[in-house]
Amino acid sequence: MYYGEKRVENPIRWGMVGGGRGSQIGYIHRSAALRDFNFDLVAGAFDIDPERGKDFGKQLHVDPDRCYPDYKTMFAEEAKRPDGVQAVSIATPNGMHYEVCKAALEAGLHVVCEKPLCFTSEQADELVKLAEEKHRVVGVTYGYSGHQLIQQARQMIKNGDLGEIRVINMSFAFGGYNFKIEDKVPSAKWRFDPSKAGPSFALGDVGTHPLFIIEAMIPDMKIDNLMCTKRSFVEGRELEDNAFVIMNLKGSENVQAGAQVYCWASSINSGARHYHKIRVVGSKASLEWDDERPNQMLYEIEGEPSRVLERGAGYLTDEARVEDRIGGGHAEGLFEAWSNLYARFAVAMADADKGAYGDFWYPDVKAGAQGIKWIEKCVESADKGSAWVDYE
Amino acid sequence: MYYGEKRVENPIRWGMVGGGRGSQIGYIHRSAALRDFNFDLVAGAFDIDPERGKDFGKQLHVDPDRCYPDYKTMFAEEAKRPDGVQAVSIATPNGMHYEVCKAALEAGLHVVCEKPLCFTSEQADELVKLAEEKHRVVGVTYGYSGHQLIQQARQMIKNGDLGEIRVINMSFAFGGYNFKIEDKVPSAKWRFDPSKAGPSFALGDVGTHPLFIIEAMIPDMKIDNLMCTKRSFVEGRELEDNAFVIMNLKGSENVQAGAQVYCWASSINSGARHYHKIRVVGSKASLEWDDERPNQMLYEIEGEPSRVLERGAGYLTDEARVEDRIGGGHAEGLFEAWSNLYARFAVAMADADKGAYGDFWYPDVKAGAQGIKWIEKCVESADKGSAWVDYE
Amino acid sequence: MYYGEKRVENPIRWGMVGGGRGSQIGYIHRSAALRDFNFDLVAGAFDIDPERGKDFGKQLHVDPDRCYPDYKTMFAEEAKRPDGVQAVSIATPNGMHYEVCKAALEAGLHVVCEKPLCFTSEQADELVKLAEEKHRVVGVTYGYSGHQLIQQARQMIKNGDLGEIRVINMSFAFGGYNFKIEDKVPSAKWRFDPSKAGPSFALGDVGTHPLFIIEAMIPDMKIDNLMCTKRSFVEGRELEDNAFVIMNLKGSENVQAGAQVYCWASSINSGARHYHKIRVVGSKASLEWDDERPNQMLYEIEGEPSRVLERGAGYLTDEARVEDRIGGGHAEGLFEAWSNLYARFAVAMADADKGAYGDFWYPDVKAGAQGIKWIEKCVESADKGSAWVDYE
Amino acid sequence: MYYGEKRVENPIRWGMVGGGRGSQIGYIHRSAALRDFNFDLVAGAFDIDPERGKDFGKQLHVDPDRCYPDYKTMFAEEAKRPDGVQAVSIATPNGMHYEVCKAALEAGLHVVCEKPLCFTSEQADELVKLAEEKHRVVGVTYGYSGHQLIQQARQMIKNGDLGEIRVINMSFAFGGYNFKIEDKVPSAKWRFDPSKAGPSFALGDVGTHPLFIIEAMIPDMKIDNLMCTKRSFVEGRELEDNAFVIMNLKGSENVQAGAQVYCWASSINSGARHYHKIRVVGSKASLEWDDERPNQMLYEIEGEPSRVLERGAGYLTDEARVEDRIGGGHAEGLFEAWSNLYARFAVAMADADKGAYGDFWYPDVKAGAQGIKWIEKCVESADKGSAWVDYE
């Protein structure tokens, strides 16, 4: 492998729904998808204002004829072309994810979708089923999971370096919603509107990120039951701005039965930026990682000095190092994490087109569905007075 | 004030029960009590082996005639002397705290006692009552609370610098008991024996430390209800080696009603030393402190750069700075924290002897009783299947 | 501005010399240049093996007819096309920089070149002159200087937030060359061969990076004289693997006369990754930055708590914030720093083509020449027995 | 050994010169000397005001008859007593160190003295000679060197864990004198008066601290030559407030010939507290230590993850662990470092009284003399225009 190696023979013809001018998330999708020539951006329904979308598409070198006013037109028109899009990324407001994702799958397209995939488990199950029937890839952009050191952690855990997992203490607890920001910044308003944001704010918006990271680190992790307590500290919010969840895990290859996960999801952690931290404690050693300093991971073997593992270092596993875009010491950031995911999405899509299924992981439709289910279970627990509820 | 200023006119005549040769805890008691000439060590029942105790006492410049074989003899004999002890510190195994403390109070002595004061609320209530009746001071050595920056936090919270408190995330989760250490180190065995350690290991041994620190920081904090989940990850232990507690707080001057405290107490956090961290989140700003780096405290106002407050700095409050033993920049450690507590114990004792009661705080008999009650409530919750239980 | 906004009306037609398959530096050039559609990669002489170069170009969507066997052919052939390249990036071994840069300028092309631009001041002066005559832009990839917080520092210093600059303590001292790596890794060999690497290893390879960063932070900085001590700790090396330089500065608007810069450049700092740290001390406050954690900068006002400034935060200056590619809290890395530089190169090139010269900075041909001169002066000092030598 | 074990059979009868009420340095001397019953404070000339000194002595349980108006009277009167002082600590202003130290040695007393011992090498040589003739111990309170991890570093270097030492980068660069503090705080004025402070401010006041630490870490270290540049950034100061020194080392067992030491000593490092940092780079690995976080030391082996060594940890050497006053994880501070030194002083004094000389190190009269010589050589270099000067 070499730095930024192209992973697929033929770039995947790719379109975007949403993510137009000024969109932060649209930009990171494009940066990640295009940098290694695994995708070609050939079409888009970038904007609800068609002219603005067309103008923006032009800047991106997209043929104006393939800049569509909406996703339905795009899917219909592209289907008529021999060189029509093969994959589409969805960067719309949350409330549209489900319908666009469903339509894309039905149109035979691979999908990359922002989380949450949808709002209910029924919807999620439907998407899982549809993806399977259509043999299409659905990649979900749990972007932080693409950091190289998450891959490193996954292999160390598999190798038994930590012993059996016993406790996970994690948080994604940012601070900017400590006051009624939605009165000041109108674009924040939908986040507390259940019809647009689904049944949760903090759990869904940030809590699902560390959840997926530990699923990526510990693929055999199974939740047995959970308890959630949530509330809004800022008056007048319909959805929670702060939540805490405790999960008991089932025993499995790398997990001691009864292992516990503590998860703090918050938007009112005054003064914090992400506070997105994960500590995985095993019977022999622990790992600790923080998305704000993603190039370092603490590795603490009981009875030995703490070690700091560095991204890009020669002592990492080959599977982690293959994703170096630059040598160790140099800082990588979130764009590289997304790029790693998009590279895997491309390979998965190319494989799927050939009917092949490579043995590697990425946040897929089931991971997306798992997030939805987890939110539902958390809400169920909270609604029952923070009672313990079985997960299956 | 000046560095290490003596706080009482006449040093308090002081004795020790336990804390003999080789005792780590005995040493820190003496270091803290004697350094500023607020106490004179004049008697002791240092050791269950009287000769060894006498020999040790000699090294400490204690008159051999006042080195006693046991605490009962000491209290009886000292009572006969015009210059008998006025105060006694208890540094015995936990199982003896209650009886020695009670006997000391009954003998009219002030007491400094290791936590836990006792094993049950009934015992604790009895000690509270006895101390009141006898007008005696009982100081409990929640040593970390004596760090200067805890005092600083207390005043910042009182001043409203954080706004209303909403969330506290705290832990004391060390790592050395990740394997069955009690089979290897016999002196660790009693910790998992309920008859010697009380109804809990992790909660009582370490969890009560951050609990008292937040009580010290936020004196008006009142627990409404709580939920505890605890277990032993290492097989064959009668008491938990890991626990998690969530508390809902009542509204009060500095606390928003419904504020939550998350507390992780553990002895199996592989590779960690103390992992004794406290983050207090208010509506405007947060504070974060870690006992392993006690000279720094993070102060994060939402929307501004994070600040690091330094012990001894000129910008701290006068009440915090009065306890400087050396200028800022120089590292203080746990011995200074204990010394601060002992200095306050001395003043409280001298005040009590005069019938005066100064307006300052220290971990007193009620703080000790609160710890016992909290453990009981946690155990009650856990025994009910980690149900929510009312605190009062 | 919005995230990743395109900065030039028409993308600049761009080619590469070197930077073929497997090249780390070629990859970062492309990632930075292409991500925002400010450049189109339309030609290249990627590889000394023309077939391999052509094959690689294909992956990059470059017309095979415009994949050339060498830079001379490329410049000649592209000059014949109406849509020929307007700019070229040079990612060859150091020994070729000068001739390619010169040829490109003579061919009327804008240039982006790796440092060092060349090996001697004579060459550098020639390039400066040539660039002026031809009205062409030469951007030098002092990549770290593109980090947002460097821009922030520049403005804070200009604003007087630090007072007058008195001391700068800086280092770029990595660790991997602590043993004779060139015997093990053949590609490291040229670095110690003066005919290929120029008159210096550590000073030129890493020392010029912090040098340019402080020039970017303090544009009015002027070196008065300097002293350098250098040597090879690993036997058999012709060029130094470790050096130290002290510079006295002249007085200027933001600099106190007699201010001093201490610079440690090393490749034998065992166990360190970059150790690329810069502390700028003013009469009122200091700034401290480390390229391994580029999203944070320490800001320490004397008498106040230390502050940590965060990339992307709302309290940064507008000029710094304009380069956000993602919101604060999210980690950016070296690729974003390079992307910022390439965006400025694009604007400078587009301006130059219009005969306009915008009021903004980037590492230009004079910055490149300054690095060469600095190395020469350091070598001169070292050769004179580490004597002080005047800079002008 | 056990926590705080008494090291000498009979406590040493001890007196103080200076260090009266309000003295920060007097307090740390007493705290360190008395805590382990290795010294008895029996006499003192605490204060230039005899009554105030007597009153203060009373608080310290010193017989009023043995509280003297001045050191001469003390030495004379105590000499007449069979139980007169055996050792004396000098905590006066710098200008008196030499005469009191000399008088004490002539009176046959052991001495503990603040650095600097004196102002000139002639004086230092005289004290060295006198101490030898009288077979008396002179301990110099380079207090930071007593931290446990310094001992650990010494042994790791001796064991060859770092390979041959090549580079040391160190600083003690505090910030409070960035403005003309001596106009505001009269007690700071003497520091810039050569008649009271000697020939240097920053070099002597802070620079000698890291110097002694590396001497303690690398006992076979020998300076070959050095270069110093120094100046006052704040106008009107007679002595330097900022200095930089480069030293070349001779080859020795643990040091590669030509190894270099970089030392920044400053009082104008705005916003910094101590900035007292030492990085020792060997051919295989490096150590890094900072007095503001003295319980941690970075240990970086090239090619492996960085490690953080913790004070009190079980993996430290026995020689380091013997000085534990409390278990690992708990923070020790500067008082423990001083206590470690005083315990060694006591043993050295008791040994000397028996004519025995134990094989252990402490900052002795030669270390004190070395500091004086180093300052002189630095001043010599600076006075010659920052020329290189031979050390021997």
Automatic annotation (TrEMBL), chains A, B, C, D:
Q: Which part of the chain is the Gfo/Idh/MocA-like oxidoreductase C-terminal domain?
A: 154-389
Residue ranges occupied by any Gfo/Idh/MocA-like oxidoreductase N-terminal domain in the UniProt entry: 12-142
* Similarity comment text for this entry: Belongs to the Gfo/Idh/MocA family.
**What is this protein's record name?**
Oxidoreductase
Q: Which organism is it from?
A: Butyricicoccus faecihominis
